[in-house]
Specification:
four-stranded mixed β-sheet; globular; 13-stranded mixed β-sheet; 700 residues; 25 helices; alpha+beta
Length: 700
């Protein structure tokens, strides 16, 4: 990020262009400008920003600013707006929440999630939309002497001489300035939390100590502002939400005209629903190549190759290392996808479900060799396979420049060798074991959800919330234990998404009693949401006493009967009664379960934990831009206060909390097969980690 200096904007000669550039420089959704040395000009701008655009044509009008500071009524109205500054916006996205504000103390940063603790501490404003311009005098942020501050921050400390001189130049005496400073400090405490829960505030039940606490998620102004700044720089993928009456939501939302930007990283899942086996047969019947050539022309593979060839040496050493590692991993994934049909085909032939007796033409010789050679011996085919890879690259105009490239020969060959080694070291098909173990795995297959909420938190669109999966699993546990009188614990889960489809359009809210006194039967205000349909598999780890686990095994029909009907706000539809497979099955054997999971469709994705730390928004965008497998997701809550009793709470304890942004890796079934069984059981499972100050989804 390059910080512009105000003096650069002042040099723009054309009035309208200069005014627009200055207004953007002092807005929340763009990178702030540096005003060091231009304090007087900055003060003139801030004062003139308190008027609508049509009232002040030139924000550098000193005469108008000077007259405004002498207007006691106007100045007092600006000072009053400090009462509605916040760190977290209670009115987003529902502006019906009123007469409350939230100023939270800094929270403790957590290494694997992004929160306001990882952003510059900034304040937003939300209140009466008619007063929105008046708030800008004290809430617009800028850099001064290397710090990101607003005028309220400056006046709440000892007033620097540079700003004292700026106020004096506009006719404000030191005595008057001290009075203004005292009034601002009085209205801006170190922290302030609502004493009751508004009836329009969302509440979510989460485990806390020996019971439950109600959590009200509230969006962080600092996180939202920095994401908008990244979107303005076009750093990453974003989509817009349409907010009605934006001026009533916040100064930030009004500044973007109600077009709120959220991270847009849905999982890439192909609509091709053929299994690898079926795909192989279809290609053979058409006389086509069995290699997945499309994997080598996708933008992620090409971007990875370019990443190795053109590492930007202006980046920090850590970022160059991360870029190289991410590029190599993407190349490995693409090569595995290129071989995916061959990998599955070899297994199908081994099981006797398909056979190729006659060798095809020389053009298909390498494919015939791969299909008729056991995976354990594929490593011996490295040289002809690598040559075929380069030939394939040379046949496409998108990739021909990379074929036989001297700087890519070694990394491509190394990654292809890694894939073949993983296949060569694969173990034989597992056998069923029935030893007594104090746990089971419950495998839920082909679960379909309609109209699930794809905005996992206020910042992210794409993969539904991890806490929604945990909530569904916890509900399942409670219902099952209540039905059987057991105390089984559902401790963790692994999640595989088979199909994913975004449903366009905005859903109309249901009719309910509305109005000031709740006596009008009408729809509430439309809040833009993003919904979708998905089909997924879920593997749940069950823990408990052996006799209780055996009782569940004896009542397998209860497992199906207790399965929840809701997920992430959507409706769950299990497989039909005529389905020819067991969609709800318990497993004792890790090997047997893994043998089923490793054969899942290659177009689906496992939602896997990652090891990345997210120190700031810039690092988040760098990781997302350079690793196509990564997706941002709702990863839990960071508590802004210790849960306590509050009026309006749905249970005895309540806390305002900030949603946290985490990172997941969307890995294909082929990736999981190559990484092996041990890696799957070690890496793939999620659990809820509950502490005094956070409730986060983490790897077990």
């Amino acid at each position: 990020m390059v910080i512009k200096h105000l003096s650069e904007l002042l040099q723009i000669k054309e009035l309208d262009e200069r005014t627009e550039a200055i207004r953007r420089g002092f807005s929340s959704f763009t990178d702030s400008v540096d005003v060091t040395g231009c304090e007087k000009e900055a003060l003139i701008i801030l004062v003139n920003l308190t008027f609508p655009k049509k009232a002040v044509k030139d924000v550098l009008d000193k005469k108008h600013a000077k007259a405004t500071l002498k207007d006691e009524y106007h100045l007092n109205e600006c000072i009053k707006q400090v009462e509605w500054f916040h760190t977290h916006n209670l009115k987003y996205p529902d502006i019906r929440v009123s007469k409350q504000r939230l100023i939270a103390k800094p929270i403790v940063p957590q290494r694997q999630v992004l929160s306001s603790a990882d952003c510059s501490p900034t304040l937003g404003w939300s209140n009466n939309s008619a007063k929105i311009n008046l708030a800008k005098l004290f809430v617009c942020y800028f850099y001064w002497q290397g710090r990101l501050v607003c005028l309220a921050n400056i006046l709440c400390g000892g007033i620097p001489k540079e700003w004292l001189s700026a106020f004096k130049a506009l006719g404000v005496s030191a005595k008057s300035l001290n009075v203004i400073s005292a009034q601002v400090q009085l209205r801006l405490p170190q922290s302030e939390l609502p004493s009751y829960v508004d009836k329009y505030s969302t509440q979510v039940l989460m485990p806390y100590r020996d019971g439950y606490a109600a959590i009200t998620p509230v969006i962080s102004h600092a996180v939202q502002a920095e994401l908008h700044q990244a979107a303005t720089r076009r750093d990453g993928q974003f989509m817009s939400l349409n907010i009605t009456r934006p001026a009533g939501v916040s100064e930030l939302v009004a500044g973007v005209g109600g077009k709120v930007r959220v991270l847009n990283y849905p999982p890439y899942i192909s609509s091709n629903q053929f299994s690898l086996h079926g795909s192989m047969i279809a290609k053979l019947e058409r006389g086509e190549s069995l290699f997945d050539r499309y994997s080598l022309i996708k933008k992620y593979f090409i971007k990875a190759l370019n990443g190795l060839l053109n590492i930007n040496f202006e980046l920090a050493m850590k970022q160059r290392r991360l870029l190289k590692v991410a590029s190599l991993k993407q190349i490995r994934k693409s090569l595995a996808s290129w071989l995916s049909v061959m990998i599955e085909g070899r297994q199908v032939i081994k099981e006797g479900r398909f056979s190729i007796k006659n060798a095809p033409s020389n053009g298909q010789k390498i494919e015939w060799q791969l299909l008729n050679t056991s995976c354990e011996d594929w490593i011996d085919l490295l040289v002809p396979l690598f040559n075929h890879l380069n030939i394939t690259l040379s046949h496409s105009h998108k990739t021909k420049q990379y074929a036989y490239h001297p700087h890519l020969m070694q990394p491509l060959k190394t990654q292809l060798l890694w894939v073949l080694k993983q296949l060569s070291s694969a173990k034989k098909e597992p056998t069923i074991t029935e030893e007594d173990v104090p746990h089971r795995y419950l495998y839920l297959k082909d679960i379909t959800v309609f109209d699930a909420q794809l905005l996992s938190n206020p910042y992210c669109f794409g993969v539904p919330s991890l806490t929604a999966v945990w909530g569904m699993m916890h509900n399942y546990q409670r219902k099952l234990n209540a039905m059987l009188g057991t105390n089984i614990r559902f401790t963790s889960f692994a999640w595989f998404i088979r199909q994913f489809e975004y449903v366009k359009g905005t859903k109309l809210p249901e009719f309910s009693m509305q109005g000031a006194k709740g006596k009008e039967f009408r729809r509430q205000g439309i809040t833009d949401s993003r919904n979708g349909d998905l089909t997924f598999d879920l593997v749940i780890h069950l823990d408990g006493f052996e006799h209780e686990l055996q009782e569940i095994e004896q009542h397998s029909s209860v497992l199906e009967a207790c399965f929840p009907s809701r997920f992430a706000g959507g409706t769950i539809h299990g497989p039909s009664l005529e389905a020819s497979f067991e969609w709800c099955k318990l497993y004792r054997s890790n090997d047997l379960l893994y043998s089923q999971l490793s054969r899942l469709p290659a177009n689906g994705k496992w939602i896997m934990p990652t090891h990345y730390s997210i120190p700031n928004v810039s690092e988040l965008m760098f990781l997302l831009n350079n690793n196509s497998a990564l997706c941002p997701i709702m990863a839990g809550y960071l508590l802004l206060e210790t849960p306590e009793k509050k009026a309006g709470a749905i249970v005895s304890l309540h806390s305002y909390s900030e949603p946290a942004i985490g990172l997941v890796s969307c890995d294909s079934a082929i990736d999981i097969r190559l990484q092996g069984k041990f890696n799957f059981y070690k890496r793939a499972f999620w659990m809820l980690d509950v502490k005094e100050h956070y409730m986060l989804m983490k790897k077990i």
